[in-house]
Amino acid sequence: MPKVTLFINKLHASKFHFGALILLFVMILSLPNQIHAQFYNGSSMSFGKNRVQWNNTIWSYYRFDQFDTYFYLNGKELALYTARYADEQIPVLERRLQAALSEKIQFIVFNNLGDLKQSNIGLASEQQYNTGGITHIIGSKVFIYFDGNYLHFEQQIRAGIAEILINQLMFGGSIGTQIRNTALFKLPEWYKKGLLSYISEEWNTELDSRMREGIGEKRFKKINRLEGEEALIAGHSYWRFIETTYGPSAIPDIVHMTQVSRNVQNGFLYVTGVKFKQLIKDWYLFYEQHYSDFEPIKPSHPLTLKYRTYRTFNRPDFSPDERYLSYTTSDEGLLKLWLLDLKTGKKKRMFKAGFSTDEKIDASFPPTAWHPSGEIFAFILEEKGKIFLYFYNLNDGSIESRNMFDFQKITHFSYSGDGRQLAMAAVKQGKPDIYVFDLASNSNIQITNDYHTDLHPVFVNGNKTIIFSSNRPTDTIKTQDKPEGQLPTFDLFSYDYSRRNPILRRLTETPLVNEKRPLQDKKDVIHYLSDASGYYNLYIGRFDSVIAYVDTTVHYRYFMESMQQTNFSTNLLDYTSSPLSDNIYIVARNDNRQKLFQIQKKELISNQFQSERTSLFMQQQIDKLKQSTQEQAADIQQRKRFRSLFRPAVISDTLLQAPLPSRQGAFGISGSQRLELLNQGKTSLIQDEIKGPKRRNYFVEYFYDNLITQVDFTYINYNYQPFSGGGSPIYLNPGFNVFMGVNLIDLLEDYRISGGVRLNTDLANNEYALSFSNLKKRLDRHIILHRQSIEDFGTTAYTRTHSHQAFYMLSWPFSEILAVKGTAIYRNDMKVFLATDQINLKKPNIYENWGGLRGELVFDNSRQIGMNLLIGMRWKLFGEYYQLIDPKSKNFVVLGVDLRHYQRIHRNFIWANRFAASTSFGNSKLIYYMGGVDNWLLPKFDQQTPIDFEQNYAYQTLATNMRGFNQNIRNGNSFVVANSELRFPVFSYLFQNPISSDFIRNFQLVAFGDIGTAWTGWNPYDPSNSLYTNYIYNGPLTISVEVQKDPLVGGIGGGARTTLLGYFVRADIAWGIEDAKITKPVFYISFSLDF
């Protein structure tokens, strides 16, 4: 991301016109229309999510030639690991994409996902209601976190580097290039996610299984309609097909031509010579034929539970007495722990945590385990930035907790046979190792201490042995000071805990296969999951021994005989078994849902006699391995090999003993090369270590976040306008104006500076604003300064009011979706009588100084799935108090609520509903004018609705939407309104091909209905409501006329919305309903999002 100090140089390098330089200089004084100084101006509301900082982090960094690595306490090892691996991968990915980095990368390393979620990275302060003219500056920051698996960590590093290179290819590297590319085309979700996945991760059994399911169930046939994980999988497979069919050079060529043509379909056409529609058909046929000979076998007999596409099941576990089955569910982040009584079939929720979110979810939480007594159920969660071990008592339902402060993360744990110790896979100082935690002394013993990934430890044979899964290349436990590289697959190892023997027993040695989740069944018998067949299936391992040789004593050779017990063509995600139970419970996908299945053990035994099946992908890998083995046989015999006496019977000796295949592919470094280097005592393919990194302290440095130049019809700052008396049409909109703004943020996005100027056509009523935000700690602080001028054409005078305001805002988040906010307000209004005649020339200026306080409770759990398309709920409760700083002692109070709910009907077809209400009281009041829409291009004001001047109004604002009418169809110091809309994005819903045009992609048809009213008095039907009285002035006579009107008004109609030149434009036609009569239609053109 370019620094502010280099901005002018960047422009010069981009050969910008001098006039553009002057324009950008003005923009440095600007700010986007994000600063909302008060609650209400129509439906333009500020919501927004939060970040809760539980820990105060002090950042440091290491500087290298091509990148910097930033880290904090206990993150030094991860930062150095990142540096070594990034230095290795940058040239590999540059060659693969045929692109070179144009600027330094900033790797920001978090110790775990929880710490990343505490940061302000990616936090949008508030919603923008005008989308036009915004240039988002594409930076070079890469945010990575450690989840306890080095392979996942490396994949994040590769994906981050690849994304920066792709962004450079697509959008340019300099600010000047990005400003010229203000109207950026959008890439389909599968395109970019799939490309990043393909470049950063090789095809594997998990991807192959999900792809086969998607093809078999025909869910992937319409690739442009896929979202989330399915878009990533289909996209990955598509780029794999492109490279297989057209060669490796086709990928960077397609990316380049996509950028040049600004069209996804043309990018493929110019390189492959095949139209995009045909390419999609070829891709689908390629995988359809690939899986055609493989008959799907899926588990049956799911438990009677509620299954959803977004719901995941984890951690099934028998209680020791086998009466209960515990399991966890996650509804996009909403965690629940369940207890199922296997005798009665009743289930009970033991614990609930979190909430549904669109952010990344840590699937490793919560690890669970049963105490051998069966009375305690233990689980681990991360809360308030700390790791807690919870104990749920089944007898009384009580919960106790213990702070596991020694560890950064715990991915798995299990009880010892006596219940006094825990075998844990935990992370400390960036290294995932095996620990034994003593519950009585609250101390731990570290078993492994190296740079390999150790997972799933379990006690077997009482407290004597610990079996775990690891990608370590050797069977010797030794302390490592620096990384040696990671093998791509996991084997099972056995550790003699009773003797503390540093020599492990290797239970499996399978270069192409992963073994994980060991679990003891009976004595000398374990279950585990393996993807030897190309899908994760259940295996059983039996320990045995034979006499190896005899000298003075008999020496035995120990081994484990393995047999496949299930033969499913879908991955088993998790399972549990018990020696006393006749059943095994597994988690697997079926019908695009994760489900919990019951399998009888006698069915597993019969599976041993079935013919073993291997997926085509796994068979291809085995064939490549055998070919590589034959070619390298002579060389292999000359090398020292680490051989284990433990061989699983299922896998052939050739597969076991062969070296890893040469898989240059996406990584450029194969597993065999890494293993050879390890055997030769090397640590990486680059130099032995990156020399001389000097630890530096991080100091705040600002970067450009976005630049804005847009036309608009609203003010920067939605403040209450001084009451003008209603003697002439009241336009709360300033008319046509030009807004220019910029946002600056620091590297960690803790500090934000925004500035903006809105230039009116007469240049006399310009508006200025400046804000500073400090979000580093949990208590967020904001300072806002604002100046605005408003002209009013009265019946006797032409005035201009200059308003100067200052706001100091504090925000305390309770969670990511709920926060309370408080604001102190100072406002100075100077009303100037313009010299239109001698009388006004002699009138003195009028000054008013106001002080105020505001409190808000904001909830926002909405998620955006497209332009103006959201799902979820958000609401705000607020209260304001304003006091005139003057002996006259005028004051008023404002209270209100705004609640919005967005329901998905189908895919991106949305039903949006809103309810809003507000009231003001005191010896002065705020008047609401109901009618019209927000940011109306040519607003009109209804002069026929009377205004009650006896209410002593001090300020005025709008109450919208009320379509079918002009502004002021109703007015008063209170209002209530309800809006309902059906939002149908026509082309993005119907089209199957990528849509490059924003106009077509964001085009929506909308049907809506509004109902509401504004009034004076206690309620709309109170006789004191000014609506029921009309005053006629005729000379010295004033005549009051009582009228009969229904205070409620409504509107129905339809419209279209789309993006035009970067602006979200709304065109609506609506018919008003007043006094049970339908009025003439009113046509609106406006610039705004949401309601």
Topology (elements, then pairings):
Layout: H1 7-13, H2 18-27, E1 60-63, E2 67-71, H3 76-97, E3 105-110, H4 113-118, E4 134-136, E5 141-145, H5 150-171, H6 175-180, H7 189-200, H8 205-216, H9 228-246, H10 250-261, H11 264-272, H12 276-290, E6 311-318, E7 324-331, E8 334-341, E9 347-353, E10 368-370, E11 376-383, E12 386-393, E13 399-403, E14 409-415, E15 421-428, E16 431-438, E17 443-446, E18 454-460, E19 465-470, E20 491-496, E21 505-506, E22 515-520, E23 525-530, E24 537-550, E25 554-564, E26 572-576, E27 583-590, E28 593-600, H13 601-607, H14 616-637, H15 653-657, H16 671-679, E29 695-697, E30 702-712, E31 721-722, E32 737-746, E33 751-760, E34 767-774, E35 780-793, E36 798-813, E37 818-833, H17 838-842, E38 846-860, E39 863-866, E40 869-884, E41 891-906, E42 909-921, E43 925-930, E44 953-959, E45 970-972, E46 974-985, H18 986-990, H19 998-1001, E47 1004-1015, E48 1029-1034, E49 1037-1042, E50 1049-1060, E51 1063-1074, E52 1077-1078, E53 1082-1087
Parallel strand pairs: 2-3, 3-5, 43-44
Antiparallel strand pairs: 1-2, 1-29, 4-30, 6-7, 7-8, 8-9, 10-11, 11-12, 12-13, 14-15, 15-16, 16-17, 18-19, 19-20, 20-21, 22-23, 23-24, 24-25, 26-27, 27-28, 30-32, 31-44, 32-33, 33-34, 34-35, 35-36, 36-37, 37-38, 38-40, 39-40, 40-41, 41-42, 42-46, 43-45, 46-47, 47-50, 48-49, 50-51, 51-52, 51-53
Helix pairs in contact: 3-5, 5-7, 5-10, 7-9, 8-9, 10-11
